[in-house]
């Protein structure tokens, strides 16, 4: 199902990825992982790939020269992923990480992917609190979200708790609201990541999610079909 980089690299030796394409990246190892989204800011073929990193609290402490980073993105109906290392970074005028140009990438067809990467603003609602979040991957079964705010007072979010999540899908005017069950929780002092299982009885929202996924597959030349 997964094929190696020879299929993911164009004959000229450059990655099939362009400036402005959103990417999902992962920093840290098991038990200390951070997933977030960035944007491709530039490339020097065979040397460096430049990723604009969001200025979220504590991110600078995660960007260390020589540390590993995993990057995923959607292009032409496929998910591509590769591992690299952080060469250096600058934080002015914007935060940009310089990554070593990858030797290989992996390719996974979206039709076979359980989840696809995305960057969808969302709100997670409990009985007592609302939390701003970003959906970083999504499928018909559920999604993975990172909380943007309220990390310090979100200790009440726990496995098997039910919450509501609202979000907008590209191409759909109405706000989507769906019940979710928390299936896994990853957090540290600054970051909070949740794995959600969608309420499968909410046919209206799941229909829109299905159409969104199919549109990504059939029309994308980048993560958002642009």
Could you explain the architecture of this structure?
- The structure is a single chain.
- The longest helix is centred in the C-terminal third of the chain and has 17 residues, at about 205-220.
- This protein is mostly beta strands and about 230 residues long.
- The protein folds into two domains: about 5-110, Roll (Pnp Oxidase, Chain A), CATH 2.30.110; about 115-220, Thrombin, subunit H, CATH 2.40.10.
- The chain has a six-stranded antiparallel β-barrel.
- The radius of gyration is 18 Å and the shape is globular.
- It contains one helix and 13 strands.
Name the descriptors.
single chain, 226 residues, mainly beta, Pnp Oxidase, Chain A, Thrombin, subunit H, 8% helix, globular
Report the radius of gyration as a whole number of Å.
Answer: 18 Å
Sheet of most strands: 6 strands, antiparallel, barrel
Global mean pLDDT: 81
What's the CATH class label of the largest domain?
Answer: Mainly Beta
Could you give a short description of this structure?
The chain has one helix at residues 203-219; strands spanning 22-27, 34-44, 48-52, 68-75, 78-90, 96-100, 106-109, 116-125, 130-138, 142-147, 162-167, 176-187, 192-198. With 226 residues, the protein is mostly beta strands.
Topology:
Elements: E1 22-27, E2 34-44, E3 48-52, E4 68-75, E5 78-90, E6 96-100, E7 106-109, E8 116-125, E9 130-138, E10 142-147, E11 162-167, E12 176-187, E13 192-198, H1 203-219
Antiparallel strand pairs: 1-2, 1-4, 2-3, 3-6, 4-5, 5-6, 5-7, 8-9, 8-11, 9-10, 10-13, 11-12, 12-13
């Amino acid at each position: 199902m997964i094929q190696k980089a020879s299929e993911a690299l164009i004959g000229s030796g450059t990655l099939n990825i362009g400036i402005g394409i959103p990417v999902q990246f992962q920093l840290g190892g098991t038990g200390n992982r951070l997933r977030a989204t960035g944007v491709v800011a530039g490339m020097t073929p065979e040397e460096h790939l430049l990723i604009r990193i969001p200025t979220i609290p504590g991110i600078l402490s995660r960007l260390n020269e020589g540390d590993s980073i995993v990057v995923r993105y959607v292009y032409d109906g496929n998910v591509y992923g590769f591992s690299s290392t952080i060469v250096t970074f600058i934080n002015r005028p914007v935060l940009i990480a310089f990554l070593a140009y990858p030797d290989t990438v992996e390719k996974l067809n979206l039709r076979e992917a359980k989840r696809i990467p995305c960057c969808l603003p969302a709100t997670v609602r409990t009985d007592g609190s609302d939390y701003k979040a970003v959906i970083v991957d999504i499928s018909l079964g559920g999604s993975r979200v990172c909380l943007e705010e309220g990390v310090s007072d979100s200790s009440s979010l726990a496995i098997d708790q039910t919450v509501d999540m609202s979000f907008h899908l590209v191409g759909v005017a109405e706000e989507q609201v769906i019940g979710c069950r928390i299936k896994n929780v990853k957090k540290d002092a600054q970051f909070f990541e949740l794995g959600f299982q969608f309420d499968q009885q909410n046919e209206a929202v799941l229909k829109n999610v299905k159409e969104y996924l199919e549109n990504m597959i059939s029309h994308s030349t980048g993560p958002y079909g642009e």
